[in-house]
Amino acid sequence: MYICTHIFYTANMTRMAEVYLWCGDRIAESTIQETQVHAKRIAREAGAGQKSTQLYIIDQAREPANFFQALGGIVITRRGSRAESLKEPYMLCGRPHMGHIAFDEVDRSKSSLCSEYPYIIARPITLQETKIWLWKGSGCGATAIGSTRLISMDLNPGGGFAEVDEGKETAEFLAEIHDSGKTTVCQSPALWQGKCGNWEHSSVRLFRIEAKEKPKQTVTSLFTGYFTRRPSWSAPKSPNTDRPNSGGAGKLANAEFEASISEIAPFTQDDLEPEGCYVLDANSEILVLPGPLLSKQSLWQHAFTQACLFAHDYAILSASLEDRPAIPKSKVVLGGLPREIKVKFRRWEERRGLWGSGSLMSGRVTGEEGGMIDVRDVLGVCCEA
To answer: Are 329 and 191 in contact (CB under 8 A)?
Structure first.
């Protein structure tokens, strides 16, 4: 656990203070409650001259953008205790997070490598010297690599580091990540290699789709709130040449129910509830994730259909507005997520699986990787039903 005090001045030179209590994912709830007493005292002291200073309780991997800004825009999270982290070798994965960059410790294995992200592999030699490797995936852009170089220099001041390009790994590097020759790197599609330099557009996004009874009388555009990063659904019209016939779904939207789409940001694996229906923007793919207990909910058919329609239209719009190298493929996930998608989560526990205990309740094997179906094929079946 860490307490961070951020004191800054506004444009009109008004003094402001924010206090954050950062809680790691291994901290017990009782410990957090006890620490809040101390954190609140620090917040009162930091807010001298102010009416009140807000204390923010932050969970690991759910940090807001303001927290990253208070720490300079880059945050590193390590596993275990500080005493252990000073002695043992480790590997960090750099991912975009809320417009900033997060470096999280991952398993020191080749299976953790993804061509879209940069990695830092470190082996402490003494308290003052550390051997550093910077692994650059083929899908990394200049922004990602530049930020990783800065962190590498901070981790080993004056000692330098070795840069390793994907596909040109040395024997020393492969030995450091325990490569057996059987594991492959998670690849990005050929069209996307070298096109992930914009951290804002390469961030993974998660949307939850819900269907409710008693619809509103007015209809608004699906992408009205896109630029505010909070899209809302209301069954817009799309070109007939690109989108499957969805006239039936549109009539149901006006007559029987309304669907709402809300973005969860930041999000973690814990946000995926087995009763929900989600759409995951994984940059090169737009995935529809129906929970294993979704069929137990009322109007679940409508929620699933709207999720497929949204994924299809969202893929087309994101390609044009965000200048993506190609229109992402829209698919429905039938089982667990493939390895190249799991690595995009800042925290992913394999033992928990995609839906946690909900998978067991529905008869699915936790973590089992299933197949995927193209969204257009699913929409075609829905329209025929």
So the answer is: no
pTM exceeds cut of 0.85: no
Mean pLDDT of the chain: 82
Q: What percent of the chain has pLDDT over 90?
A: 48
Decide: 127 and 86 in contact? Cβ < 8 Å: yes
Overall fold of domain 74-197: Severin (3.40.20)
Find the distance separating the first CA and the last CA of the chain, reported in whole Å.
Answer: 53
Q: What kind and span of H or E run contains 84?
A: helix 82-85
Sheet architecture: strand order including 162-165: 74-77, 100-106, 90-97, 118-124, 130-136, 162-165
Strand partners for 20: 4, 56
For the chain, domain boundaries: 1-59, 74-197, 204-384
- Whether 243 shows a pLDDT value over 90: the answer reads no
Give the pLDDT confidence of 9-45 residue by residue, as tens digits.
889 998 889 999 999 988 999 999 999 999 999 998 8
Tokens of 185: 């790197």
What sections of 272-374 are H helices per DSSP?
300-321, 339-342, 357-361
Residue of 211, 235, 220, 374 lying closest to 304 (CA atoms): 211
C-beta neighbour count of 144 within 10 angstroms: 24
Tokens 């804002």 belong to 200
Give the span between the Cα atoms of 70 and 84, in whole angstroms. 26
Tell me the C-alpha to C-alpha distance, in Å, between residue 191 and each of 56, 138, 171, 187, 318. 41, 11, 29, 11, 16
Q: Which two tokens stand for residue 172?
A: 């020393």
